[in-house]
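Input (Solute carrier family 12 member 7a):
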Amino acid sequence: NSNSDREPYYEGKNMALFEEEIDSTPMVASLLNKLANYTNLTQGVREHEEAEDGVRRVAVMVPQMGTFIGVYLPCMQNILGVILFLRLTWIVGTAGILGSFAIVSMCCICTLLTAISMSAIATNGVVPAGGSYYMISRSLGPEFGGAVGLCLYLGTTFAGSLYILGTIEILLTYIVPTAIVFKENNSEAMHNNMRVYGTCCLVLMALVVFVGVKYVNKLALVFLSCVVLSIMATYAGVIKTLIEPPDFNVCLLGNRSLRNENFETCAKTDTIKNTTIPTELWSLFCSGQYSYNETCDEYFTLNNLTEIRAIPGLLSGVIKDNLWGDYGPAGTVIEKKKQSSVAAQVPSEEKNMNYLFNDITTYFTLLVGIYFPSVTGIMAGSNRSGDLRDAQRSIPIGTILAILTTSFIYISFVVLFGACIEGVVLRDKFGYSVKKNPVIGILAWPSPWVIVIGSFFSCCGAGLQSLTGAPRLLQAIARDGIIPFLQVFGHGKANGEPTWALLLTVGICEIGILIASLDDVAPILSMFFLMCYLFVNLACAVQTLLRTPNWRPRFKFYHWTLSFLGMSLCLSLMFVSSWYYALVAVVIAGCIYKYIEYRGAVKEWGDGIRGLSLNAARYALIRLEEAPPHTKNWRPQVLVLCKLDSDLQVKHPRLLSFTTQLKAGKGLTIVCSVLEGTYMTRGNDAKAGEQSLKSTMAAERTKGFSHVVVSSNLRDGFSILIQSAGLGGMKHNAVLMAWPAGWKQARDSSARRNFIETVRETTAAHQALMVAKNIDHFPGNQERLKEGTIDVWWIVHDGGLLMLLPFLLSQHKVWRKCQMRIFTVAQMDDNSIQMKKDLQMFLYHLRLDAVVEVVEMHDSDISAFTYEKTLMMEQRSQMLKQMQLSRTEREREAQLIHDRNTASHSSANDKAVGAAPDRVHMTWTKEKLINERNKQREGMGVKDMFNMKPYVDLNQSNVRRMHTAVKLNEVVVKKSHNSQLVLLNMPGPPKNKKGDENYMEFLEVLMEGLDRVLLVRGGGREVITIYS
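Output:
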């Protein structure tokens, strides 16, 4: 025997005990084998080179990227970018060293805390392609995942437009200033230039991305080396200032800084060969030729020109001047504070173009919004999780190291810029005072062009990366299927390149480019990234606090307090940097959240929010348990007892419609049913029944829980449900069921017995009971009753449920137009006028609007008709007991009695003499009945009636009860035969079980001639109060 033949044999011997489970649960050895061979398919390009959908995936080499190449460098490249080169010097000049230090520290701490949370999530299990979106959606659920995913997508897309605007700003300001299309010398013309060139650049980049991502990836290293070289050049320049400061000078008129692209010499006049001639500056400020009587700008005449070094150097002590901020409104002239000057009496307007101005109003919070994009990009490593050799080790180390490195670079730059560069130069955003060079460029060694070219390529590369990353992120969200209207963006080229997503990204990117200002786009970008980071921190905090069993990150250096600190910092930064953008971002995220909640696909990702709901529910239930609810908080928590037919469909769906109308989605609803049999044989039926209940509940818009139990008989099943449905404080306090319409025709008495036992059990359990007669005639949820009344017949007070139900019904659209009427019954010795006044007062205190009517019922003699009804009832039960007929005969017998019963009652109501069917052999004849009725009409006394032989043996309590039922029924039918719904007090079943069938008969008589009836029995406690 070969080895392979023996294996299953041995497995069978050793594992015989588990052989039945092997089909559904694999053996551990085979499971381990599968897990070891699991390869995390690479993301991005490699993934898209495989055929999609249905075709077997091509085996790919296991990705081999370490921490340095895979995480550290991409993060560095994404974090260091456009703001560092184009705005950091201006931020330092405007906010001062201390203010800038505060801004940089806040933003860096925010990203560091986020990175710690992100590391915890990323190391909690395998993170497939999709990076941060995948992490958040699997930790916080589809709603948050979708909202955050789209925020991250919009952030990445706007980052693309920010980088493109940066590219164009470098191009038009420093590289080819002559290439401008709109020549006017104002900011609007510059914006239009940015729009034109930005759009062209965007189209070009989109084409590159469309043609092939592999080119972008190959160029990544070139772009990264540009960034590194630029930073090295800057540090080298700082060191060089110690040896000899660079020879860039700034020209000041008085204390105002001048744009020096239009003149060479910083003097009013120049002496050449002993002749004094005016310089270019003179012609800029004065009109006409050089002479002492010509009109010059007053400020120009009063003040002298001085030339100072733009970069005094590290040891010059300029750091003291730059410690504090210098904010100002748009249009303020940039001045050197310590320089003396003489103010002009009449400020000149037309010559102002030669000074330097603040182009926007500056304040601390604005600078936070502009600076924040320069710390984003911490997700770059986790977005490549698919390409890493060991993602769980690389992501935390690489990301945190990258953040620490870049934070060091930013903070050192803030201090070094403040210590080396003159304040007026720092505040000069575009470098006009230093011959149109970037300010960081004049500090760099060997030449400003290092920075210009380096930053240009760095911005290009970052823009391309954004345009590559954003469509993939959108594609991942679309493929998850949680946002239905995004489905189209899941499709792409044959190799999976996201073409449609790229088009949308270009469209959104264009919006950013049309804004045309780096300073306006940056805060928008900050919002979306801050929103995303906020949710990463929230995800980590929620998982840590819930202590989900699956939360076992390999990265141990996290704590929920850090996550909460990160979360609150993100939220604060959002509202600090721009409260209106923050509100817009929150509203967008909120709308997406709600949309996914209502329309999105139902996904079960084992997310933390579900765990949070469970914990919250458990906490609330434990709190509820402590005390029974106060009368003010009492509302019907309904247990609906439903019947399922043989196809496991709900027999009376209107029962659920009525529940919806009664509850309006509030409180607890448990819809239950019982199947006869054993759970082992009918387990699948129970599941199918539950599904059927759920679908009917959805159709009838009933919010609640459904439950089907299997029991040896219906009686026990309903009993178990009444006792044990609900949980803790969330138990039902009322039972709703349909009246068993066919109890008389039933072959056995089980329907009747079940019903009466249910009534007894709800009473014993102190639960209210509502029984609906003709439930199928009740209005559906779509119907609107235009008029009519809800009539309450308040005969005995059992807690005020009768008053509360019509009020609750009238809250629903179906019953809103119905008027509530309350009838109460006065006996002979009651003062009916006083009763009516009292009742009106009571309803006024209860704050219920209803018409009150008191109906007087006199102690009339018991009619022959009542005796006849009682006799029939008793004879029927006697017959069924004594005559041991075969089942079919008994059924026919019962039917005949029923026919006669109905006929006689209708004839009595019509006050007409109807012939009762004489097929049933009775102790008295048809003629005798007619005679008795005629005699009664003539006013025959009740004593004579007792002399009639057939009535003497009747049970007197039954006669009395039947008398009440008949009299009450007459009154109710007379007053309420046209009402939309009649609510009646339900009399309790007899203590003695012998009278059970009679009890059903009394109820039938009580409800006869009425269409929609709700019998109500209170639960023995007050449910309505006059107190606030």
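The chain has three domains: 32-244+358-577, 629-771, 784-901+954-1027.
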